[in-house]
Amino acid sequence: MLVGGRLHYLFASELDAPCFAFDAEDLSRHTVWEHPGGTMSIVPLRNRADEFLAVQNFKPKMMSPDTEIVRASYRGENKWTVRTLAKLGYIHRFDVFSGSRDHLLVCTIATRKTCLEDWSCPGKLWAGILPEDPEAQVELKPILEGLTRNHGYWRTAVNGKNAGVVASDEGVRLVFPPERDGDGWSFETLIERPVSDIAMADIDGDGEMEIAAIEPLHGDLFTVNKRINGSWQVVYEYPGNFKLGHVVWGGEIRGEPCFIGGSREGDGELFMLRSGKNGRTGFECTRIDSGRGPANVAVVHRKDEDIILASNREIGEAALYRISD
């Protein structure tokens, strides 16, 4: 995001550790916050300069009844103000849909847990209106319930309409924010099997989105799914030593459609998957790195290169991978 008019990369930890902002030009860094960590998601506010939202207090082992969304505002001279926007247990992912009003979508992985393996109280989707006042909190109301292991999220567009994609044991759903004041949220089911993490991209260039999925929760299967004759079918399974999958991203690298995947265990690798074209057949996989255990990635498109930002969780590393023509 832009911070003080300069591009910065933000990295935060799921542990009790700082959030850092790195200047994109010289990689100098400053601290956004020291504590409490537990950050699963960071969302820059697209129409509000120098502000982002983030999850805090989502602790390892998912025992996280005290999670909250905070609002961070840049004050200049490498100083930030961080305020609580919403308190709600077990927040894992969230997003903001900008329009006449900014709609906040919040995904909770569970409602209550007594231990790591307790999934008896499913998660929910919550929604609210982001207040203009940076010191105000948001009122959240449930809009969809019964989402067991509600872990995965992706932002997309369908027929020109913004949408979120959520993944849980109940499958993959499209979530559409209200188009006008007074409208409700709407939903569409895509896949009906347990999915952990999700991304969408038109990887083969046929004009329709494909779905890359990690299955099931923190699973050992990375698939590409395509809609064929009206139903979603698996057309590719990653053959590598993929365990505790956590990275899935879809988009373009140097103008070519691709998916990016990664796992925290097994080979702990990060890889890029492209479809057969330009003389290639099937899917072509390029290993970017291994032994790092990535948990999350973002991609930055620059004039002469694209940059993959990776949270290499298993070795405590913030990494940049530069890809040029």
Overview of this protein structure:
- With 325 residues, the chain is mostly beta strands.
- The two termini are 24 Å apart.
- It has strands at residues 2-3, 6-11, 19-23, 29-33, 42-44, 51-56, 68-76, 79-87, 91-97, 103-108, 110-112, 121-129, 141-147, 152-158, 161-168, 171-176, 186-191, 197-201, 210-215, 221-228, 231-237, 242-253, 256-266, 270-275, 283-289, 296-301, 306-312, 317-323.
- It is globular.
- Helix content is 0%, strand content 57%.
- The model has no long low-confidence stretch (mean pLDDT 95).
- Strands 9, 10, 11, 12 and 13 form a five-stranded antiparallel sheet that branches. A four-stranded antiparallel sheet has the order 1-2-3-4, with no helix packed on it.
- The chain contains no helices and 28 strands.
- The chain has two domains: 1-147, 7 Propeller (Methylamine Dehydrogenase, Chain H), CATH 2.130.10; 196-325, 7 Propeller (Methylamine Dehydrogenase, Chain H).
Please render the helix and strand layout as text.
Blueprint: E1 2-3, E2 6-11, E3 19-23, E4 29-33, E5 42-44, E6 51-56, E7 68-76, E8 79-87, E9 91-97, E10 103-108, E11 110-112, E12 121-129, E13 141-147, E14 152-158, E15 161-168, E16 171-176, E17 186-191, E18 197-201, E19 210-215, E20 221-228, E21 231-237, E22 242-253, E23 256-266, E24 270-275, E25 283-289, E26 296-301, E27 306-312, E28 317-323
Antiparallel strand pairs: 1-2, 2-3, 3-4, 5-6, 6-7, 7-8, 9-10, 10-12, 11-12, 12-13, 14-15, 15-16, 16-17, 18-19, 19-20, 20-21, 22-23, 23-24, 24-25, 26-27, 27-28
Short description:
It contains no helices and 28 strands. The protein is mostly beta strands. A hairpin with a 5-residue loop joins strand 19 and strand 20.
